[in-house]
């Protein structure tokens, strides 16, 4: 599995925050001892910026962490200094979305609901191009499409992500890019859904109201239990990562309810293929 520097940075941030709190030090006191500003230390502890291994070593000494425990964290900090593939697309990926892609690259499981559009991991090249045209314009279009297709490698790597998708039936009806694009897109979803690590379910209109009517989401879980699961929400201009256990638990319950309300995978497959024939 990819050792994502984003996940490593998040782990270091959490560990340093917990160690400072365990040492009963305020941000002010710790920042002064580490010869950095309070705002910089706060941003490090919130994974907004990285920290160099030598500064991690200084922080661990301050918090009286030594030996194998210290060396393990310093090694993680070294990994956080590496570059992820998505950073080569920083000219077209907003910083807040780069953070999400970095999490996605190492996720062991993704649970997501979409109400309007096909999720990026299931989009065809033509559909992705049309989505970007409508939501972001022509600038950097081909680079954005290339980055989106590169993200899909998580479905096909040696240890692929376990993907559970619930699609609102509206996604199957909204014509994006014309009939040919839509027909190909729906067949593509049905094809990808046959992978053993992918489950796609359609939430039919007949299901009526449901708990995610106004809240598309992604829940990301990781193989290493030291990396806590996170809920990711997105709008037109920013993304929000909710890391509290209560958020993850709440959205996980919603996802299970949506799966209960949705067509089962077999019926969803048939529905996708039938819907594709509505775009001759």
3D structure, described in words:
GO terms for molecular function: DNA binding. Residues 16-70 form the HTH cro/C1-type domain. InterPro entries: Cro/C1-type_HTH, DUF5753, Lambda_DNA-bd_dom_sf. The structure is a single chain. The chain contains 12 helices and 6 strands. With 280 residues, the chain is α/β, with parallel strands linked by helices. It folds into 2 domains: 5-80, lambda repressor-like DNA-binding domains (434 Repressor (Amino-terminal Domain), Orthogonal Bundle); 86-276, Endonuclease, Chain A. The chain has a 6-stranded mixed sheet, sandwiched between helices. Helix 4 packs antiparallel against helix 5 and helix 7 (125-136) crosses helix 8. It is elongated.
Give a nutshell description of this structure.
By secondary structure, the protein is of the alpha/beta class. It contains twelve helices and six strands. The radius of gyration is 21 Å and the shape is elongated.
Unreliably modeled segments: none
Total beta-strand segments:
6
Q: Number of helical runs?
A: 12
For the biggest sheet, the summary is:
6 strands, mixed
What series of H and E elements makes up the topology? HHHHHHEHHEHHEEEEHH
- What percent strand? 5-15%
CATH class of the largest domain: Alpha Beta
Instruction: Label the CATH architecture of the largest domain.
Output: 2-Layer Sandwich
Question: How are the strands of the largest sheet arranged?
Answer: 3-2-1-4-5-6
- Average pLDDT metric: 95
Q: Alpha-carbon distance between the termini? A: 40 Å
State the helical fraction: 40-55%
Protein name: Helix-turn-helix domain protein
Domain HTH cro/C1-type: 16-70
GO molecular function: DNA binding
InterPro entries: Cro/C1-type_HTH, DUF5753, Lambda_DNA-bd_dom_sf
